[in-house]
Amino acid sequence: MRPFAYERAATPDEAVAQHTEGAAYLGGGTNLVDLMRLGVAVPSRIVDVTHLPHAQIETDGDGLLIGATVRNSDLAAHAVVRERFPMLARAVLSGASGQIRNMATVGGNLLQRTRCPYFQDVTRPCNRREPGTGCPAREGEHENLAVLGHTQDCVATHPSDMAVALAALDARVRIHGRGETDLDGLYGDDPARDSTLRPGDLITHVHVPPLAMPGTYRKVRERASFAFALVSIAAALDVTDGVVRDCRIALGGVAAKPWRARRAEAALRGGPATEDAFTRAAEAELAAAEPLRDNGYKIPLARNLIVRTLGELA
Amino acid sequence: MPEESQVSLVVNGRTRRIAVDTRTSVLDLLRERLGVTGPKKGCDQGQCGACTVLLDGRRVNACLVLAVAADGSRVTTVEGLADEDGPSALQTAFVEADALQCGYCTPGQLCSAAGMLDEAKDGWPSAVTGDLAEPPELTDEEIRERMSGNLCRCGAYVNIVEAIRRAAE
Questions:
Q1: Cβ contact, residue pair A99, B60, below 8 Å
Q2: CA of B153: how far to CAs of A96, B21, B27, B140, in Å?
Q3: CB B96: neighbour CB atoms within 10 A?
Q4: pLDDT at residue A227, as a whole number
Q5: C-alpha distance from A234 to closest chain B C-alpha (Å)
Q6: What is the pLDDT of residue A60?
Q7: What is the pLDDT, as a whole number, of residue A312?
Q8: Taking CB atoms and an 8 Å cutoff, what residues of chain B touch A85?
Q9: What residues of chain A score a pLDDT lower than 50?
């Protein structure tokens, strides 16, 4: 591991000032420390942000204001999150292990890096790690990689469960001194870039507006626990007299960002809450999918997950 | 050039002050500098749980915590689970239920289980909890899910679950 200086910031202004060229913010370290050991991340300076005053969850009207240094386990255990945002609690609980959830922060979870095997291997080319070097995943090992929104340059997936629920919840991410953005704005449309943030940008809070319909999170993975999603879904559905009044759907494990299924949502609103309608909506969304050689299984998996989850919520 | 930093931690009740290379993990500090060898190095990437310790009372992977980031914290390792009267109820349950074979993962299993039992006592839910509004009951399914961050390559899982259930009662 390359030597680095360590700073502990007490205020957001101090953190930003300490974030000089080549620096990295440290949250729980569950991803960054691992990547430093692999030589993927080589910061010259670490700015520890876990002592910033952002470790609270405030109930803001009927919504939530979640501090960026709230640990994942505290978010999932919070009484209001469990009661009013079970989709978010379940997404967080489905990620990682008990130990890692105790360490991982909300801000760090949003900004964790892809687990694409080529990104994590410094002996291989990777456009994300070193722009312009190429993407061996497209022809190589890509069973777990993207089917939606990918490009010639990058077929990575975003590993977070929590972010999928936050995308479905229309959450807004606060960046110190730069206002707010939704998750689409945070991650952008270029899969080869981790996010649209500039060096030194600091996430301070996530604002979650109220959601007045039942929702849940479901995750399909290769083993029962402590594994990344093959495909996951955060969904909410409001049905009155058999008609879909409103709905939210976001998919995980299919793209470089949490994939908000807006086409499926538009297809469902105002229509009948039937299995046929759910299937048609899922197919409308997945029509844009472009599977690679070995990950076509994700398309029927995503379709079935959408249909089954909406069926349970209806 | 390596960067050094002075850290102070309370390890199993004893204050330790030491200068460390900023790259040092809590695991390497404990094992290589302080002679506290209960926590084990398995994967060194947060996957296996053999290095699990309690940091300010919460279970974490010591391999992924930088010692400089833990400055000022309280660390409890397997060496700190027992009291003057002998092994804790959890440790006794591991012995009685035969919850180990080679023993390499056991210090991490014990610290993880100790942290997990406190989490359950505080009413924390898990991914297999049916009703998130109700305090969870520690069924075998709940124990297995909550202990998924600790691998046992001997496959002593059945008896580990049994030991933790006995300790919870």
A1: yes
A2: 19, 32, 20, 20
A3: 13
A4: 97
A5: 14
A6: 74
A7: 97
A8: none
A9: none
Question: How many Å apart are CA A113 and CA A32, to the nearest integer?
Answer: 9
Q: At what angle do helices B106-121 and B157-168 cross, to 10 degrees?
A: 40
A85 bridge partner residues: none
Token couple for A14: 């101090």
Extract the tokens encoding B156: 């002593």
Count of beta carbons in the 10 Å neighbourhood of residue B33: 15
What is the residue type of B54? L
Contact call for residues B26 and B74 (beta carbons, < 8 A): no
User: Which value, in Å, is the radius of gyration of the alpha carbons in chain A?
Assistant: 19
Distance CA A77, CA A92 (A): 10
Q: What is the pLDDT of residue A61?
A: 84
- Put simply, whether B126 touches A (Cβ < 8 Å) is yes
Question: How would you classify the pairing of strands A243-252 and A215-220?
Answer: unpaired
| Chain A residues inside the 8 Å CB shell of B119 | 73, 77, 98
B23 contact residues in A (CB cutoff 8 A): 1, 3-4, 36
- Nearest-angstrom CA–CA distance, A47 and A18: 7
Which residues partner with B9 through β-bridges? B16
Mean pLDDT of chain B: 97
pTM across the whole model: 0.98
Cα A194 to the chain's mean position, in Å?
11
Distance from CA of A28 to the nearest CA of B (A): 8
Does B84 have pLDDT greater than 90?
Answer: no
Name the residue among A233, A286, A99, A157 with its Cα closest to residue B26.
A99
